[in-house]
Write a structure and sequence with these properties.
Blueprint: H1 10-19, H2 21-31, H3 42-54, H4 60-65, H5 70-76, H6 83-92, H7 95-113, H8 115-118, E1 124-135, E2 144-146, E3 149-161, E4 164-174, H9 183-186, E5 193-196, H10 204-212, E6 216-220, E7 227-232, E8 243-249, E9 260-266, E10 272-277, H11 284-292, H12 295-307, H13 318-342, H14 348-357, H15 363-371, H16 386-398
Parallel strand pairs: 1-5, 5-6
Antiparallel strand pairs: 1-3, 2-3, 3-4, 6-10, 7-8, 8-9, 9-10
Amino acid sequence: MQGKDTTKSTLNQLFEELSDQKLLKQLCKELGVDKYVKKLKLDKLLALIALAQLRQYKGLREISSCLNDEEISKALNLDSIHASTISRRLASVPTKMLETFFLRLKNECIANIGLNATEGLLGRLHLIDSSTISLCVTKYRWAEFRRTKGGIKVHLRIRVHDGGVIPDKMVMTPAKPADRTQMDALVVEEPDAINVFDRGYLDYKQFDQYCDNQILFVTRLKENAIIEVMTELNVNPESAIKKDAIVFLGKNNQRMKHPLRLIETEDTEGNPIRILTNVTDLTAVELADVYRHRWKIELFFKWIKQHLKVKHFFGHSDQAVENQLYIALITFCVLIKLQKNSGYTGTLLELTRLLLACLHGSFSDFLAKLLRKPLKSSRGRRILNHDLIFEHTYEQVMTENIDFLYDSTYDPIIL
């Protein structure tokens, strides 16, 4: 990693990336976050919670006990801390502080990757979706969903680039409100941005407003939608596109005042998909590709739930839960920075696993192992062309070139 002190331990380097001392001190000073805190300052809290998420700790006592590890204690300059102190601190840090830190870190990732140069033909894609996380209603009364069930919704916008995705914005709500209630908070209004979301955000009045304000979107239409076809556009019969048309949606008072573009295609299993958009400068095939990228936000939710432990929370208040979610996004951005700055081309999961295995070693050793090329290369399992082998053997026999039959080293697979 260029410009980094590789003599430090991987643990030290990770904590420094997480806390970004200059930026964090500036924000803490502006918001007065650490003003009366003596022991567990924000940079240490960030490091502890991030480590707990990466290592899949189950509770506050396990976080507190990890300081018995001399390497962790030394890296944090913290001998011990009580579990209740971690709980109070996590619940008291202003969420605005962590949100601001996340947004600045996200912008740094975007600058490092150079998204404007990697977005390619389809343009600047922003994927929008939500994921519900179940909670125990007796412990999280503020997140009551049903009488016997609690939960929250994590509404998220992520930005697509060639190598993957970067989280862009998050809104946390109780699980009850519909997805479309958070559309205005997540939709990007810049003219070069395309917002991609699923059928849960279908709202004709909202779509008319987006058309008025030249906000671009691509979504999926529900099966029971009322459609009035105005113009049928030409479709390449050799493509996967079945229909491309200009339509009006709804009827009577619910009829949209702006026409939209309707594209019909199929998924990999042959099921019909109807895509709705106000984008006019991309082909139907390109717009189908745009909507296929929406799956990446599902994979992102799965990744952070499995590998950053956002299904289990260390605090019970809404502020503690939201703070932990922001720390998970901050941790993800730090992993993206490590991947980009090190030049590693493998998956983020492989990088994370090696990072955890090398925490107590030097950062230079971690980089060496991360970028090490395999000593042996395998051709894998080969699919044999039995017809070709038979034809070749038959030809040799017919021309009486049969000496090979007495050769114990002969291999008919090597032609």
